[in-house]
TrEMBL record:
Superkingdom assignment: Eukaryota
Protein name: Uncharacterized protein
Length: 792
């Protein structure tokens, strides 16, 4: 063979070949430092350090060193492997490491079996009780109340106090007593009903949640309309009022769910006067059918501001010349959700129309107010409510539930009032580290349903819609809950049987979810199912259910994610302890800066008690945990750990959840639980940055450990892409042909402005209504991640 002329010259020195080591894990600064140290040693320019490069497989040879860090760099914190006692890290040193999203060494490890853990030898151990920050709160032994506190929002017990004595007709009073089982009025009803019946002045109603504000303004309206059709003895005097006699009252509420609830209460009251007709016009429903109802005639209209403003502009049959009452319910929420322009337009158009004293049939309205009366209802007198009062009220009387003296001064000049929770409500806040949040929530629910009849209905408030979807899919059992055929299609994906939280006393617990991204018919059916069910049930929801909703027999409210403001917290816990019933509220707080948030809560010191997560785990995991059924399983299975202790059960449960998420990705399951967990984590972090400015010091995102927070979503490390924008186009539920949005995120998004916003924001991930509206109002005050929210 001919010589190709290629010469190879290998120059081998006497120095041994140096193996290239790839540095992985840890922080990038540590990896760079180790690489530089290794390079200096290799070039003979060492500065005297004895750094030794570490690879991933050499970590077990020198366990005393941190991950991938040389000996020349001291460990950031001293930690004993497997020991749960940790010194609290300094805040300044934590802020950088928390944002890395990497779990601390030892949080997830593989290798020999630890005798303190309940996993199998050689498997992955999910360590929950190491590297947790130490809380500042000092826990004391709970003191049992000798006597329960007297209810502050219960009906009056005085026998002389009845609805007939307040000025209502015997027909209405007897209907309330016999059909609605209402024997006596509440304090706010006693102070409001006589004033609105006898006088024609504006009023500002301020009372605790669950005290009966809805009936306080509805009963006087019904009474004065009925007075035109009934004689003094209550008998029919030739009914002259019918649905075509005119529109007499308009009630505005911020959410569709609250409008539905007000309409339901009004329909029950109007059963004693069937000739008076009421209806609703809200977003998410057909405008054509609403116009048809308005064309037939209506006497009392319940509406959301956006849809009512739309009808005032485009529906000619809507005549407001006979309107006597304009009620603004939940005034603070109306302003927070950005309805100021719509409210100004509605008030100006109603006042601009000349007030008629009779209708087209010649019926005179002598029994009705001779001027337009505005009633504003709000729990607090905040600045935005004062502004709304300036727009709508004129010489209004300020009426509260604590005094019978009604001041004649302008309600807009009253100092901002502090709104307290009902006295019979027992409030507790749990100090829970980020890694233990999920297992503590399960333990709390499991212990709550451990006894039959102790807790019948519970509500869990979560910050964003994506997180609601994830927790619902995680907690649901393999088979969906059976439902009536007429409603099964609507609640197929929102109602199911719960897993993990059942007990021998309550083997079946219903699980429901509710948020603003669901289509309106689904939201209505789900909420109705929660109201009417007689079985123990848990509703996982966002702030969409925090205002005004009256659900009977709600015994427990859990704030898994703290509210975005103290006022929202007050309304959340107001879903329980209503109308004199007892109730319990639990708030989850993480150790550190969040503990300062407790001082802002508007509650007495005796009614709020701190509690450690350890006692909750002891109660919840005292008995075995029933795992959810899969499609192949027919019988439920029980979680078993090698060491049957509450802590070992908690770690075994966390490991089971993590493996369950990974299994959905490997098996190609349709549930996509892992993707749901990652999206929920991203939305949760973005929502965490939307707390109001005054409270953001307690919810500092720079102090939030992303790795520990990821553990609470069943993830083994924090996913990326939190602030980098959406990676895929997200279609909301209920989107029709041509991009038509049927399930709007905003509770009343059917006005022109909101329709344009939805068209522009179709590719932004969905979060909850309250967070989205707050982002719109405070867009310039929050971080750059604000653009990631669905503000539709």
């Amino acid at each position: 063979m001919a010589d190709s002329g290629l010469l190879l010259n290998f120059d081998l020195t006497d120095q041994p070949l140096k193996r290239q080591v790839k540095y992985t894990g840890g922080r990038w600064r540590d990896r760079v430092s180790a690489q530089r140290s290794a390079k200096r040693n290799g070039d003979g320019q060492s500065t005297g350090t004895n750094a030794t490069p570490l690879s991933a497989n050499r970590r077990d040879h020198n366990p005393s060193l941190p991950d991938d860090i040389g000996n020349d760099r001291p460990a950031k914190r001293q930690r004993i492997q497997g020991d749960s006692r940790q010194e609290r890290h300094d805040v300044s040193s934590r802020s950088v490491s928390y944002m890395t999203g990497k779990l601390p060494p030892g949080s997830i490890s593989s290798g020999p079996k630890n005798p303190n853990q309940g996993s199998k030898p050689g498997g992955v151990t999910s360590r929950l009780f190491t590297s947790n920050p130490t809380p500042k709160t000092v826990f004391e032994d709970p003191v049992e109340d000798v006597e329960p506190a007297a209810p502050s929002n219960a009906p009056l017990s005085d026998e002389a106090e009845n609805f007939h004595a307040l000025g209502l007709s015997r027909r209405i009073a007897q209907h309330l007593f016999a059909k609605l089982e209402m024997k006596a009025p509440t304090s706010i009803q006693k102070n409001t009903i006589p004033l609105l019946i006898k006088e024609d002045s504006d009023a500002f109603l301020q009372a605790q949640t669950g005290s009966g504000k809805t009936l306080a303004y509805l009963l006087p309206i019904v009474q004065r309309i009925m007075a035109m059709s009934l004689s003094e003895d209550g008998s029919n005097a030739g009914v002259r009022i019918h649905r075509d006699s005119g529109l007499f009252a308009i009630v505005l509420a911020p959410t569709r769910e609250l409008c539905k609830q007000i309409a339901t209460v009004l329909e029950k009251v109007l059963r004693c006067a069937p000739w008076i007709v009421s209806t609703t016009v809200i977003g998410g429903e057909s405008k054509k059918s609403e116009k048809a109802r308005l064309r037939k005639g209506v006497n009392i209209l319940v509406a959301t501001p956006g849809r009512l403003a739309d009808h005032l502009d485009n529906t000619k049959v809507l005549d407001v010349g006979t309107v006597r009452w304009l009620v603004l319910d939940e005034g603070d929420r109306l302003m927070e959700m950005g309805f100021e322009d719509e409210l100004k337009s509605i008030v100006s158009k109603i006042r601009k129309e000349e007030l008629r004293g009779s209708n087209k049939d010649g019926v005179k309205f002598d029994q009705l107010p001779q001027r337009r009366v505005t009633v504003l209802c709000s729990a607090t007198m905040k600045r935005n409510v004062q502004k709304l009062g300036e727009i709508s009220l004129q010489d209004a009387a300020h009426i509260t539930g604590t005094t019978s003296e009604n001041s004649g001064e302008d309600a807009t000049e009253v100092d901002e009032a502090v709104f307290a929770a009902p006295s019979q409500l027992k409030q507790t806040y749990l100090i829970v580290p980020g890694k233990l949040r999920l297992v503590t929530l399960i333990a709390l629910l499991k212990s709550s349903f451990a006894r039959r009849g102790s807790i019948m209905k519970a509500i869990i408030f979560i910050s964003c819609a994506d997180s609601v979807d994830f927790h619902f899919d995680l907690f649901r059992n393999g088979s969906t809950r059976s439902a009536p055929p007429a409603k099964s299609a609507l609640i197929d994906n929102t109602v199911a049987d719960a897993a993990y939280i059942t007990s021998p006393a309550n083997p079946t617990v219903a699980l429901l979810k509710l948020h603003g991204s669901l289509p309106q018919p689904v939201r209505t059916a789900t909420l109705n199912s929660f109201r009417t069910t007689n079985d123990p049930c848990v509703l996982i929801t966002t702030d969409i259910a925090s205002r005004g909703l009256d659900v009977p027999a709600v015994d427990l409210v859990v704030e898994y994610d703290p509210a975005f403001s103290v006022d929202d917290h007050t309304h959340r816990i107001g879903r329980t302890a209503r109308a004199g019933r007892p109730g319990k509220a639990v708030l989850f707080i993480q150790p550190g800066c969040e503990e300062g948030y407790i001082g802002l809560l508007n509650s007495t010191a005796s009614s709020v008690a701190p509690q450690s997560y350890e006692s909750t785990l002891q109660k919840g995991f005292f008995s075995p945990i029933t795992l959810p059924k899969t499609e192949k399983e027919t019988d439920p299975t029980t979680l078993v750990s090698d060491k049957q202790t509450p802590n070992s059960r908690a770690e075994a449960l966390q490991l089971h959840i993590e493996q369950r998420l990974l299994a959905t990705e490997k098996e190609g399951s349709n549930s996509k639980l892992l993707d749901s967990a990652r999206q929920a984590f991203r939305s949760h972090i973005r929502a965490y940055a939307t707390h109001v400015r005054d409270e953001r010091q307690y919810f500092d995102i720079t102090q939030l450990h992303l790795g520990h927070t990821a553990k609470s979503y069943g993830l083994r490390e924090a996913p990326g892409g939190i602030g980098g924008g959406p990676s895929r186009r997200t279609f909301r539920a209920g989107q029709g042909k041509g991009g038509e949005q049927k399930g709007a995120d905003r509770n009343d998004g059917d006005n022109k402005a909101s329709s344009k916003r939805r068209a522009d924001d179709d590719d932004i991930p969905a979060v909850d209504d309250a967070a989205a509206m707050r982002m719109r109002m405070k867009m310039k005050e929050v971080m750059n991640v604000a653009s990631e929210f669905n503000i539709g």
